[in-house]
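Hi there, hope your week has been kind to you so far. For a while now I've been wondering how a particular protein folds. I'm sending you its amino acid sequence along with the backbone structure tokens. Could you read through the record and tell me how the tokens relate to the sequence? Take your time with it, there's no hurry, and the full record follows here.
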Amino acid sequence: MNDNTNLGEQRERIDNALINAIDDMDREHLRKLQLKMHGCAKRCCADIDASADAVQRCVDRCQLPLTRARCYVQQELAEFESQLDHCMRQCEVLANEDSGRQSDRCSLDCVDKYVALLPELLSAMRVTLEKGL
């Protein structure tokens, strides 16, 4: 197995873990907020006495919880990816210093470490989302 295959498999592992994490957050929290948002917006639009401006402000307020939650999830996952990328860059430095064997092991260790950290991250994100932002 060559280095490109290893790197490709590692990237695929991380990508799949992140996709699953995002799907979990969407199913467990974001969709519920989206349902609430649409119900709220529907009530805003049903107010026939409200001005167009008032309806728009009402709808905008309805969107805030979902927008905040989405931003939070994106920010947390971006930070996770940044830390993983930092770990992988350190492995690249190691590759320049040796024959590459330690670098391969280092890269695998990074992937293993960060895939293992995902459940903890998701748990912390769930707690935060359940409390509200």
